[in-house]
Write a structure and sequence with these properties.
- It is a single chain.
- The chain is α+β, with helices and mostly antiparallel strands and 132 residues long.
- The protein is globular.
- The chain has a six-stranded antiparallel β-sheet, with helices on one face.
Amino acid sequence: MQDIKTFLQRDRFAEYADAELVEVTPGYARARLSVQPHHLNAVGIVQGGAIFTLADYAFAAASNSHGTVAVAVNANISFMKALSAGTLIAEAREVSKSYKLGTYTVEVKDEQGELVALFQGMVYRKQDPIPV
């Protein structure tokens, strides 16, 4: 896990957004975000881009957890619930992995375990080792 954490410390946007990597195992990752005022949109709820960033960060960790570079080729998100405070948890799980492609599902939940968003993504799996 330390190699992938070191690698993902280079993700300046996730750092700027306050996303924190909590756990990584092969094909799995968990990240969290404590909602702050700068995460809110004009109507006072968490901005969709903040939720997407958290999900994408967990997706990046899970897809790169095998030690080789994986880059997104597709990602989409559906929002189920709005919130304006608390902590968000994103759990990324590998659905399938082949020599060149990997697919992942990320569930973003609130502190009560209720689904806030569902993210699905696909990566192209390069053969380059992740740089640490």
